[in-house]
Design a protein that fits this description.
36% helix, single chain, 2 domains, alpha/beta, ten-stranded mixed beta sheet, D-Maltodextrin-Binding Protein, domain 2
Length: 307
């Protein structure tokens, strides 16, 4: 065999192996709207995004395996922004989000994939403001939170809120990374779109925020209500000074009486079909919504459940 023929054979073999890997992974390139099936007919649904929702998404995936053993649900976090970026590229089936997609993100997804993102409300949440369990403060206003977190804010010590703590006076601000939907939601709704001031301790996940606060008596932070533990306290929150401060309860989250209530969302590219549609329908059924409750979030009203 000549060198030319040998080189051509190597190129052909490399191309064939690349194609085989893509077929095997069922994730090379853009995905169809029903999930990706392998040669044996086993379907894999890729689910990525919100860290607020990652525990819920994993619980859904594990329970659905009992319902549909031939369907694998692969769940990963990274933040709502990461899930949306993957959806825009067409490399995931579901983007989990604790914020709405932005118009420019929807347009980019349409340009890249030729499909319009479709939104599903799969539950509800209260974005809770957490402090250490021994902190005597019980309520806080948007104005105070902006003074703590926003650029130009003047409150840096607990004494600025009339609070005395034996562990120190300096406020330890706990926040999330900028790819987080929770970060975006807090910035838009609480800080009135002002930038965060520098110096916060930015955590990768919702659980990590609460764990840090539980071990830091002078800390304050924000995270989903489903991550509450015995080591922290959720504050009542008032959107305006002088208005009653509301606690982050399931009832207040669903009614909107709690001022930092939000929907938990899933996005697909176009109307879902096949196994993907079956999975989303199940998530919003009574069985799927029970898991929302079990994970500490708020289910959709019963009249919104799918059959």
């Amino acid at each position: 065999m000549t060198k030319k023929h040998t080189f051509t054979s190597i190129l052909w073999l490399g191309s064939a192996m690349t194609a085989a890997v893509c077929l095997f992974q069922a994730g090379c390139g853009k995905r169809e709207s029903g999930g990706a099936a392998d040669a044996a007919g086993k379907v894999t649904i890729q689910n990525k995004g919100s860290d607020t929702m990652v525990n819920l998404a994993q619980a859904w995936a594990e329970e659905y395996k009992k319902v549909a053993p031939a369907v694998d649900i692969e769940v990963s976090g990274g933040g709502s922004g990461q899930g949306i970026a993957a959806l825009i590229k067409g490399t995931v089936d579901i983007a989990n989000c604790s914020r709405n997609m932005k118009p420019q993100e929807i347009e980019q997804a349409r340009k890249n994939t030729g499909k319009e993102p479709k939104e599903f409300v799969v539950g509800h949440d209260a974005l809770a403001v957490y402090v250490h369990k021994d902190n005597p403060i019980d309520e806080i206003t948007f104005e105070q939170l902006a003074n703590i977190y926003a650029e130009g804010g003047k409150i840096t010590r607990w004494s600025g809120l009339g609070v005395k703590l034996p562990g120190g006076d300096d406020i330890v601000r706990v926040s999330r990374q900028s790819s987080s939907g929770t970060y975006e939601f807090f910035r838009e709704h609480v800080l009135d779109k002002k930038d965060f001031k520098l110096g916060s301790r930015d955590m990768n996940g919702s659980k990590e925020v609460v764990e840090l606060i539980a071990g830091t008596p002078t800390a304050i932070g924000y995270s989903g209500m489903g991550y509450a533990t015995a080591g922290v306290k959720m504050l009542k929150v008032s959107a305006k000074t002088g208005q009653p401060a509301m606690p982050p309860t399931p009832e207040n989250a669903l009614s909107g009486a709690y001022p930092i209530a939000r929907s938990l969302l899933c996005y697909t590219l176009g109307a879902p079909e096949g196994e993907l549609k079956k999975y989303l329908d199940w998530m919003m059924s009574a069985a799927g919504q029970k898991i929302v409750t079990d994970c500490g979030c708020v289910p959709n009203p019963a009249d919104k459940h799918t059959k």
